[in-house]
Design a protein that fits this description.
Distance between the termini: 76 Å
Helix content: 40-55%
Oligomer: single chain
Structural class: mainly alpha
Shape: elongated
Largest sheet: 2 strands, antiparallel
Number of helices: 2
Amino acid sequence: MASDRPPVTRWFLTFSPYLGGLHVVTLIVLMMLGILLVAGVVVVYVAFPHRGEDIPGAPWLGDAMNRAADAVPVLEEEPGEQAYRVFG
């Protein structure tokens, strides 16, 4: 008893480990390296320039981070507004 319907193709059965010539694992590794780079920049900023200290061995990096932090707009507390503290 033959059916006239074409065979069903499941996406997980036809998945190829290559994405446009770039291996999927290579893409994941590159994305993870980018994430680690951003996390490292955040840690260095919080550890040194945010506290007003120079980065040992790279004071130019601390200056660049301070200039970038000063360029970002900040919401200031308006007069008459009560500041709420969650912890302490």
